[in-house]
Amino acid sequence: MSDTQPAILLDKVNKWYGAMHVLRDVSLSVGQKERVVVCGPSGSGKSTMIRCINRLEVHQEGRIVVDGTELTDDLRALDTIRREVGMVFQSFNLFPHLTILENCTLAPIWVRKMPKAEAEALAMEYLARVKIPEQAKKYPGQLSGGQQQRVAIARALCMKPKIMLFDEPTSALDPEMIKEVLDTMIGLAETGMTMVCVTHEMGFARQVADRVIFMDRGEVVEQGPPTQMFESPQTDRLKLFLGQILRGH
Amino acid sequence: MSTSIAARPRPAAARTGPIAWARANLFNTWWSTALTLALGYLILRGAWAFLDWGVIHAIWQVPQGPKGPNTDICRAAAGTGACWAVIGEKYRFILFGFYPYAQQWRPAIVIALFIALYCISANRRFWRKELALIWIAAMVLIGILMWGGVFGLTLVTESQWGGLPITLILATFALALAFPLAVLVALGRRSTRLPAVKLLCVMYVELIRGVPLITLLFMASVMFPLFMPNGFDVDKLLRAQVAITLFAGAYLAEVVRAGLQSLPKGQAEAADALGLSYWKKTLLVVLPQALRLVIPPLVNTFIGFFKDTSLVLIIGIFDLLKSGITAVAEPAWQGFGNEVYIVLALIYFAFCFAMSRYSRGLERELDRARRR
Questions:
Q1: Where are the domains of chain B?
Q2: Which residue of B has its CA nearest to A81?
Q3: pTM of the prediction?
Q4: Regarding the domain with residue range B164-317, which homologous superfamily does it belong to in the CATH classification?
Q5: In A62-114, which ranges are continuous DSSP H helix?
Q6: Other CB atoms closer than 10 Å to residue B92's CB: what's the count?
């Protein structure tokens, strides 16, 4: 696989929920090691789009190619893609019946067939990287939201993914916890990970993103580097959106 | 300019002890005082009447006459005192039915085996693969003891079995087999990829749930042989066993499905996103959480079916209840059903209460592990 091949390619992707047309001709190419931030008003289809990339949602038209593998009904292709793509959710979705360590080792042991000791060493390494190794024996319910989200990031990283997807990772957090999660994500970006991140954290976008995608009503309306997007938006819809979120802050 | 308020210990509860408790809960208003007194009077009256009948005027033994026990003194005391002598005379028939008298040590061991099996299975320390082997070994042993015909044990056919072993066999096998069946049916019913499997599961649940257990038992005992070729015979006990198992499976499937429904969608999505296959996701993430959520209704159903096994008496199987009824059918003991029913109730209660206590303990233990 060459470095010129995009990590993620969406080609005229369309999706409907019943009669509602939620993704309209979405085309997008994310390069290797590129960091893309997706923003847009609620209901704009940004979460649906990112969830299509690892097929938590199924698209009806168009092509999605992840790391050279096209997403089809073929289960083997899906398997390959899900091993390579990590995902972090808005609501953390840690497994409450397992300890932090078990959350992190579950997939390496059962999917990657890694020996338990090796998986645990790897998990401790990543838990140290998200700065909570001392919580390894606790259960998710005993951790704060920010800690849980950092565990969720570590859990995804334990599968050694090539691509990380973030679906509004800080939206469910109390304000004082947002920074610790963003710092973790910034640290991850510095390692050269390919990242697609749905977020409204404009400071994060400015600091980390190579490109910002603005979506509205199911389509990609405008894209470009963060400075250009935030300082000289071209479309009225982006101007309106930026006006709204800046007023909100 | 703000001064912080120093933390101070929580004030102690005003008064404690049984008198304070009674004053706060039983005599806090004139209405509650009146209710307490009225109910207290009724409870004491009832308790005294039972004590008077069951202990003070009770007859514990009857003399042996030439033609068996002489129950005249019990008849004379009828209505004023219980005749517990019937239990002493008949307990072996109640427990073992028509099982050959000299061989009744065999079903006695079977009862002990079942209870030991329950105790081992209840302990979470033994929840590993070896437990399945213990179960299989115990089942083989129980089969050998009940049937015999090997190792010098005389053969005893199912038609001679009776009493508590029948109840335990029916309940244990029905629930042990219905539970995995129920999990599969519940999963099948939620399947989106396999519409035929889903339809089959829905039909199974709706058909079985739509008829009374008694109907199913009659079908198993009367109708089923009609559809079978001549000479092909399945024992009545086995047919009843299958009917109860299928019936319990349908009910348990709905309980399990409720657990599956109540799990947030994000759990399955997170497992999917990590690349876990359907079965790994189900076994490692979904079921451990879903089943934990439905422990109370699961145990509820278990207790219900333990008692419902007594319905097999209508197709002539001598379970515990039927053996008890038959024990007092003999002329000498006719009319002493109350005493027998009380003992039967106590046996059923012991098993059901144990299940209920266990489920409460299990819930607490699993909750503590999570410390939510």
A1: 41-99+334-372, 102-155, 164-317
A2: B275
A3: 0.83
A4: MetI-like (1.10.3720.10)
A5: 75-84, 100-110
A6: 17
